[in-house]
Amino acid sequence: MFVKKLVEKASKKYGSNSTNSLRAEDVSPHLAFHYGIPSGSSVMAYDSIQQILAIATKDGRIKLFGRDNTQALLQSDEAAPSKFLQFLENQGILLNVNTNNNIEVWDIDAQILCHVYMVNEEITSFAIIRRSLFMYVGNCLGDVSILKFDQRQRTLLCMQYRIPFLESHGFGGQVPVMHILPQPMAETRRVLIVFRDGLLSLWGIQESKALFTVGSIQLSSIPETREVVSACWVSMFGNKVAVGYSNGDLFLWSIPVISENNATVMNKKEIYAAPNIPFIKLNLGYKLDKIPINSLRWVVSDGRVSRLYVNGFSDSGAYSLQVIILNDNSESRTIKLALPLTEPCLGMEIISSFNDGNKQKKDVLALLLKSGHLCLYVDSDIESFLLKSQSKSTPSIPNHIIVRLPYYESRITAAKLYASSLPSSGPTEEDTLCLPDKFPHFLSVDKRENFVLASTRFEGFTKIKRLYITGHMDGAINFWDASFPILLLILSVKPQQGEEENASGSSVTALHFDFSSQILICGDQGGLVRILSFKKEQFSSETMFSFLQGCWCLMLGIRLLKRAKHGAYNIQTIKLKGAILSASINTESKHLAVGTDKGYVFVIDIKGSSILYQKQFPTEIYSGTISLQFENCNHNGYVKNVLLIATEDSSVIAVEGDTGNDLNNNGVHTKKPARCLLMQTLDISSDGVCTAHLQELTQEKHDKDNTTKHSVILLCSEKAVRLYSLNHAAQGIKKLHCKKKLSGHCCFASVVSSHSSGVGLALLFVNGKLEIRSLPDLTLLRESAVRGFTNPSMKSFQNSNGAICCSSDGEFLMVNEDQEILFFSILLQKAVNRNLEPISRIYQRGIAMPQDSYSNPINTQKEKKKGIFGMVGMGSKSKNKEENNSEVSYSYTVEDLSAIFSSANFQFTDETMNTSAKDENVELDIDDINLDDHIDKPKGRNFSALNKQNLGKKFQEFKGLLKPKSEDKLAAGKEKIEEEKSPGSVDHIKKKYGYSTTNETYIPPSIAKERLNDNSRKLQETGARSSEMQDTARSFSSMAKELLRVSQK
């Protein structure tokens, strides 16, 4: 009750002066820039013309990597995982299908979400017709619809053309479409639809029917569950397809190339082969371990050898990624390579990479691992390994590279970010030296080094807009210019080998930089304190240039002179007890205070490198010293220099700064101990303006005489924020001015300052929520979220001090180990992050499409007929050439395709698709039975088997089902579909079939009788032909037996 009254009193006291504090209009939390690979990555796509790699995450983010080292991050409001990700190549459009079955259309040039197309059914497959604006969408019902991207409206349009399940599959109920593969060399004419049950249906776009089906029967006598998981073409002509199954099977099926007149191009081996049996079953060990084959990728490079990348992993943790050579001259064994991965692979793409030395283009196999890391293999090295393996030699396994941030070799364990108090300016000459193309490419397969790129005009730290200091696990300290979206390394200090104090190389745990004295304090886990005193006279234009040259050579591994490593600073070391957690400097007395995890506080004279005094403050739960700060306050009528100590359990203790004598017996303690995150002193003037003693670059000295101002101590813990009176806390009196309980678990807190208004408090929670509150009333100004912060792989954000840091001007810098860096801005400021436009320019206009064509087989690689693909050749040379020429002459243009897709190929398609599962008992009309002789019968045994099944089915349905049906009638053969109005009334139905429209008398249905007699006659003729065929078959069987008997004699 007492605390509640104090809170109400504080709210009344400072509420009237809220105009002098940070305002809501000054706050604009947003992600300024993202560098690296985002956590939670799951799906990849690649634009081979623009050379853009897209990586989608599980929380709705999409990272883009373009040419010249450019990067950009797209964020959707819908934080849903991605299922399919594909480019409209060279169009600047990226299509993302998420788990909510929404298709997002991203304009990567403007980097905006321009349209969202919602689908009712679950999307199970997605494919784009190459060099067109059309795309196939397959759903869980087995239907396929066609969408078109409207370039003018920047939206997706649904076309009238449909591929219904009953027409493409024809059996059973509903089977999801797993893959949609436009046939190579005939993308605008044929498409292969792969269903989950294993059926492969080759669909003719203009014919609007299935031209060929295969793969629907059980291939083993032992019943087993086999579902299609992956599929891809393994032929340039579209006559071979690889299919991976859930039980580990990998089959290669032969698909005929069908000409315009529906004639199949198959050789004799294919014609007399057993139907529905794959011509090759590859045994790579996946079935033995029950590993589903999740993805397949077929690659042909330089016209030498074709390879199939086979990726599989199971929920039990088993995984394997193998590469096999397909057009091998030897049929006795399979040439393969198992890539030595340490975790499952979620996706793979063949991308282009550049050698940083000579800019030589290379094809690189990019593997997205389960942890979110990207693994790179040079594709030519894999090809060379397979070729050498043909000679039964044992070549070395190709090397791989895990993509990491090119900034440091050791993980960051402590970090500080300091901003300049000077107003931000526009681009300068230094910006031209920091263009992204001047840095090593992020996706380079060559070994990258840390380069130092700085201008000769650089004059010390005062010219830097934002300084980033990092301490690393190996004890190194790096100084970065964070004014740019790409960090510039300006100095690196590494532990000296041979010195006893630094021989351990312990992780850096604490950093503190005082700009007025140019002193850096660094403490590590082993208790070693390093004091770096920089020489101010060093930072002139000439001496700084020579100094940077020495650092550049040092970063490249060239050890020149020790003067280059120590020419800018002097080093002092002191060994203390316990890991160093905090440090502070009294610039007036040159005293240094250091706190450890054991509860010790040491005060050191910097000049003499001697310990003045040490004290220990044991606590109940947490023993560490989180924060230290020297301040002047009024104590019993006297101005004293006190040292404020914040312990890990959120207690505040004050001692004399020079002697260490206790100013009180108790200190200030909370009722419920919680881990302390921040302690900061604030000054409140008489008119309510709140200021903070923040560390800034080129800042003016703060007046520490707080006798004329009302000073408070801001104390932030994981569960609450409190404001105590500084003068009362020095006397051990707990006078609470304001308190705010937090709704959640806070993991980081920082005071931010807007030069145009006042100061505020930024609170980051473990679930990614970000709160910005005003000071000193703690009013909530804005609430936001940091996308990607809640991912389990981001534990370093919550447990490591070096993962998050914030400058005084509200710029967050978050590092996820060696994978990504987030630049997050809180306040509304201009020109804070410079050069964002050059590094974010992903799409490049004016890039011409390659001159290859769909239907030009002359420029493509000729496939070998030897090896494991010898049995599925394209037939004789003359026949192959003739059929290829026919393919060229009958290729459709995009305009022709648009005309076909704009017309409805089936009546009432939408109703049929949506109610196909419900309308199973529809009665048949006698007119639905079409027995005309002029229908073109497709060649091959599979077609005959399929037609017999359909014919037998209709015979069964014909028995007793002569009732009228209210559906349109489909014409036979190649005749156009006649549009008929569906009966709208009972009278219309009666009139159509010869009945009277009145209830008096019924006239015999003469019309129906004539049709029945006609169909009966056709059935008799069909039965006669069937009997004749049966007799022919018996004669052939008898002749075969006689021939066998004669040969055996």
UniProtKB/TrEMBL annotation:
<comment type="similarity">
    <text>Belongs to the WD repeat L(2)GL family.</text>
</comment>
<dbReference type="InterPro" id="IPR001680">
    <property type="entry name" value="WD40_rpt"/>
</dbReference>
<dbReference type="Pfam" id="PF08596">
    <property type="entry name" value="Lgl_C"/>
</dbReference>
<feature type="domain" description="Lethal giant larvae (Lgl)-like C-terminal">
    <location>
        <begin position="591"/>
        <end position="851"/>
    </location>
</feature>
<dbReference type="InterPro" id="IPR036322">
    <property type="entry name" value="WD40_repeat_dom_sf"/>
</dbReference>
<dbReference type="GO" id="GO:0045159">
    <property type="term" value="F:myosin II binding"/>
</dbReference>
<feature type="compositionally biased region" description="Polar residues">
    <location>
        <begin position="1023"/>
        <end position="1037"/>
    </location>
</feature>
<dbReference type="GO" id="GO:0019905">
    <property type="term" value="F:syntaxin binding"/>
</dbReference>
<dbReference type="InterPro" id="IPR013905">
    <property type="entry name" value="Lgl_C_dom"/>
</dbReference>
<protein>
    <recommendedName>
        <fullName>Lethal giant larvae (Lgl)-like C-terminal domain-containing protein</fullName>
    </recommendedName>
</protein>
<dbReference type="InterPro" id="IPR015943">
    <property type="entry name" value="WD40/YVTN_repeat-like_dom_sf"/>
</dbReference>
<dbReference type="GO" id="GO:0006887">
    <property type="term" value="P:exocytosis"/>
</dbReference>
<dbReference type="GO" id="GO:0006893">
    <property type="term" value="P:Golgi to plasma membrane transport"/>
</dbReference>
<feature type="region of interest" description="Disordered">
    <location>
        <begin position="969"/>
        <end position="1037"/>
    </location>
</feature>
<dbReference type="GO" id="GO:0005737">
    <property type="term" value="C:cytoplasm"/>
</dbReference>
<keyword id="KW-0268">Exocytosis</keyword>
<dbReference type="GO" id="GO:0005096">
    <property type="term" value="F:GTPase activator activity"/>
</dbReference>
<feature type="compositionally biased region" description="Basic and acidic residues">
    <location>
        <begin position="969"/>
        <end position="982"/>
    </location>
</feature>
<dbReference type="GO" id="GO:0005886">
    <property type="term" value="C:plasma membrane"/>
</dbReference>
<feature type="compositionally biased region" description="Basic and acidic residues">
    <location>
        <begin position="1008"/>
        <end position="1020"/>
    </location>
</feature>
